Amino acid sequence: MAKIFVLLLFSLVITCFGRNDHYPLICDTSVLETYKGSTPYGNLTAGYYYKVDGVHNLEDCTKACCSSITCHVAFLFNTVCFSIQCYNASACRPLKRTGKKHEHSYMVLVHNPSIDADDEAGIFWDGNTDDKLSSDVFLDEDDDEANDEVTGQLSFKSTVADIYPLPPKSCLYGLDQDCLENEECRTKNTRSRTGMCHCIKGYERNSRGVCQKVHLSSSYDYATSPSIVNRENSATKNSTDATAPSTAPLIHKLVVSAGDNVTLQLPENEVTLSAYALKQPEGEDGNYKYEWTLISHPEGDETGTMQDQNTKNLKLSKLRAGLYTFKVTVSSANAAGDAMVNVTVLSPERENKVPVAIIQPSNVTVKLPNKDTVLDGSFSTDDDKIVKYQWEVLEVPIGYSVQLNETPTLQLKNLIPGLYRFKLNVTDSKGAWNFTFANVTVQKETDYPPTANAKSEVVIYLPQNEVTLNGNLSTDDKGIKSWEWKKSPDTDKAVDMEGTNGPYLHLSQLEVGVYKFILKVTDTADQTSTTEVHLFVKPESNVAPVANAGPDQKVTLPLQGPLILNGSASKDDIKIVKWAWEQVAGPKPAVLSFANTSIAKAEGLIPGNYQFKLTVYDEKKAFSFSLVNVSVIQTENLPPRANAGGDKTIYLPCDMVVMNGSLSSDDVEIVKYQWTRDPASLAAGYTIGLSDQTPVLKLAGLVSGRYLFRLTVFDLQGASSSDTASLIVKSPRDIMDEVEIMVNADMKSFSQEQEDTLLRQLEILLHDVDPVIVNLIKLDFDRHTKRVILFFTVERTSMISGGRLMPGFEVVTRLRKKLRTDSSLLDVQVISVDTVVCQNKCSGHGDCDPYSKHCVCEAFWMQDLFRYNFGDKESNCDWSILYVIIVCFILVLTLAGGFWSVTCLLSRMRYRKPKKRHRYTLLDDINDREREREKFFPIAKTQKNSLMTSDSESDAVFESTLSVKTNGISNGVHKESRNINA
């Protein structure tokens, strides 16, 4: 019995631990870590996926993984259980997914996979997994509604392809490079070239999205074997079967590996990919050829650099953020295979900053009856984005409740009087948070009593015996709730009343006499107000009104004010409804004011007799009129008083300036105005029309400076008076920012369209960071060449710049730089670009002439000719005349010395004589030599010859006179033979 127990115990130990010491077959599911909404980091490349049939909850799925020696991770997607055999710990670490599609996905890390020597991902299987998981979050970009639909369709028959769907790839028909290997482009219809990539005939797409050859038969029984979802490694892809003729050698499939998927994070942008193939069976040739191909890369022109594409190791550098997919093809004489590997380049990490919580408005006062307000927290800012808004109630009046939500705005409705305090907490994508407060004060409204208002007196005449009294002029700050009409107790006459509870009271069956009615109004607070209305009913009668224009008048100039025409003494039995004054006679038309009232005013009178007529009308349009005579006399003539309008200051540009002298006055009349220019005034500008002979002087064409104008006025008697006014014309406030540009276009043919196009092109050229607007000030032309000149300023329009003008010197610098690079940027040729006011500093050694825009240099300074003619062509005073003279003197000396040296050299080379050889002989006796000489040279003959005198003397050619004179006859010489001809 004991032996049997020992055997059973031994078998149990072997069963539990014999297969792998690192993977216990029994694990405590209560202590395992579960990650909700997560998937393996490597997706399909994480490892082998085995679908566990009949298991639809997390607990059973975890137990199934615990009982398997090859299972590392239990993965439950909705109700489908998978056991994952991981390639390495890095590929199977949990990745948090935010989409609704993965809301019901769970991962349980059961066993730790074996870690390779170069695998640094084992840290994800220690106790700090939660910390690492918090930083690995994948934001799904799928639409939530689409995810809900897909999630609802997943059932017990789901596969891994349902969890990681491959996006469709579009293509252009006729371009094979748009689709991958073993794919072709198929259009949706015959009229469109755009289509989708599909597998060619005989191939089907696997879960990795690669088209592979269809195997029609297999000895493997899929019905009885476990459901293996994915048997492909992301870095290991079997090559497709190659069909060859029977005479061709058999091509074996190589199992190729390109290594694990690589993840980099900038600024690291270099990596080396390595590929290897398993040894061929039966000792086949192992000399492999490698070829690396880029399958996909991030969008953009620069994709990086590849080196050693035909070697085992591929070196990558200058990678950009995004996903790269590479394919390596390994082949030999009788075997071939390929594999693919992904390189993910992540953007550089950034330093997270705490968000700034802002509530607008932070303090608000609400006065009833307004009962609603909104607190807006959307003005809160963060360097990335704010993912959570949380409102808190700190203080509210008793009895008020508010519904809080996690949105940027908080709506407060049906507020009651009191103080409200709220707190807003904001959290960013990295979990950093901040808060702020807001106060809301609700005040009670003040309710004032109503004011009853109806016409106090109403008069009607028979046969009219009905009338409507109007009480709608009554007012209240909150609104009137009710009206109530009633007859006063003082009225005993009978009358029919309709609408006593409304604003309008209709009365009928009225008789001659006086009626009194009382209107009472009540507001929403039951406060009341009353008023009385008297109704006079008179018998039918109409008498024409009696006009009375007043007594005749006699006035003496000068008048202290306007003449008063008083017709208030006019009367009517009922009422005068219209007044009309008019002038009938007089030496000059007078100016009548208030001519439609009972009292009118007349002005502009001169000596003479005037007659005015007053016509009055009653309600029945009956009328009458009255005349009044006015005699105007002048006892003495006072001179007029000139008023030129006072001093005035304006800023250019200004098309027209007005000097107003209409305030000049006279006791009778001013008959003549004369404007003249003071001799001390500037002479620029001109008078428009004949305005110098009118009260208002109009001027144009003014320039900056001070002008003096004298106004002289004359009356009828010839008396005159003068007044002087000064006009100060200042340069534009933004004159330093004005720019003038001359273009090669004739003013006679320059159209409005060309002007608009040129201004838009200038805005494009000057647009750098802030958008700009070119404001045209003036369009002018050169008086000699008729070329168009535009004067403009450039205004920045961004919120930060606040509409400030761009400095004119900066505008000119930018335009010159861009036009110097490419003069065809504008439709018209630019002749010159400069500021209106010369801003050239002339190198600090001169002044800029405001008219020619050229520098007038100081003494001992001059212009840099090379810069002005061949450089930026800017007028300057860079050169010192002293240094120029010194440099020129040195140059002249240098040139003279060089010329002299060349001349001497040429002379020496031309006139050099070959050196003669010296011949030496023994010296003879002097007598012998004399005799020898006498043989050849006759006596008293002069001969010329070149002699070599001695060794120490130089070789020189000279002429010598040889004459032999003797005293008598030499011994031994006869006189007959004295001359010997040689």
From TrEMBL:
Domain of life: Eukaryota
Principal location: membrane
GO CC annotations on file: cytoplasmic vesicle; plasma membrane
Gene3D superfamilies in UniProt: Immunoglobulins
GO biological process, one term: neuron migration
Xref: SUPFAM superfamilies: PKD domain (SSF49299)
Signal peptide: 1-18
Ranges annotated as spanning the membrane: 881-907
Record-annotated PKD/Chitinase domain positions: 255-348, 356-445, 451-540, 546-633, 641-732
Protein location: Cell membrane
Name by which UniProt lists this protein: PKD/Chitinase domain-containing protein
